Amino acid sequence: MYIPPKYENKDLGEVREFIAQNSFGILVSQVDGRPWATHIPLELEKDENGNDILMGHIAKANPQWQYFQDQHEVLCIFNGPHSYVSSSWYHDEEVPTWNYVAVHVHGQLNILTESEVMAALHRLVDRYEAASERPISLHHMSPKTLRQIKGVIGFSISIKKVSAAFKLSQGREFDHPAIIDGLERTGNHGAMDIARMMRQTDKKKG
Predict the structure, then answer these.
(1) Which residues contact 81 (CB under 8 A, 6 or more apart)?
(2) What confidence tens digit (pLDDT) does each residue in 18-62 have?
C-alpha cells in the first residue's frame, strides 16, 4: 500500500487497537494464479512467544483454502472510517480530498488443527457475546450443532509487515476546526468517526 510519509502511522499500539476494533477484514491470496479475497473476522491475538498473530477461519466450500499451502505470503486488509472532505472547509483554495484509515498486514499463514480451531472459535464467540444481554456459549451447544465446525478451515497468520495509513488532514491543522465541523454536519457515520479521530489526534498533539 502506498502511504505518503505524513499519513503513515507507526504507533503500533494505536494500530493494534484499530485492528482489534475493526477486525472484520479481507484475506487476500492467490487462487489458481489469480487474486482471491474473502471477507472474514481476523482476530488479533498473541502466540506462545508473545508475538502478534491473526486468527481466522473460512468455509471448506471456499476454494481459497485449497491453495493455502502454496502461499509464501498473504495480505489482510482492515478498513476503518472514511469520508469525502470538501475544500470549502479550507481557508485557502485547494482541491477536495478523502480522509480514511486503513491497515494492511502481510504474513505467513499456517493451518490449525481441529482442536486449535475449536479453541479459537470459543474465544471468538466469548469475546463478542460478552456484551450481549443473553450471551450464548459454544460450551452449551449440542455435539450435533458443533459438527458444523468440521466444515471450516482455521488458520493463524504470523505477522511479517504492517502498513497503516491514517489520513486525517495532516498538514492542514489550521483548517481542522472547520473540517471537523463540516464532517460532523454531514450526519454521516463515517464522516463523524473521522471527525472524532481528528479531535483525538489533535488532543494528543496538544
Answers:
(1) 100, 101, 189, 190, 191, 193, 194, 197
(2) 999 999 999 999 999 999 999 999 999 999 999 999 999 999 999
> Which DSSP string do the residues of the chain spell out, in sequence order?
----GGGB---HHHHHHHHHHT-EEEEEEEETTEEEEEEEE-EEEE-TTS-EEEEEEEETTSGGGGGGGG-S-EEEEEEEEEEEE-GGGSSS----EEEEEEEEEEEEEEEPPHHHHHHHHHHHHHHHHTT-SS---GGGS-HHHHGGGGGEEEEEEEEEEEEEEEES-TT-GGGHHHHHHHHHHH--HHHHHHHHHHHHHHHHH-
CA dist 26 → 41, 85, 171, 200 (Å): 8, 26, 30, 27
- pTM listed for this prediction: 0.93
State pLDDT tens for residues 5-25.
999 999 999 999 999 999 999
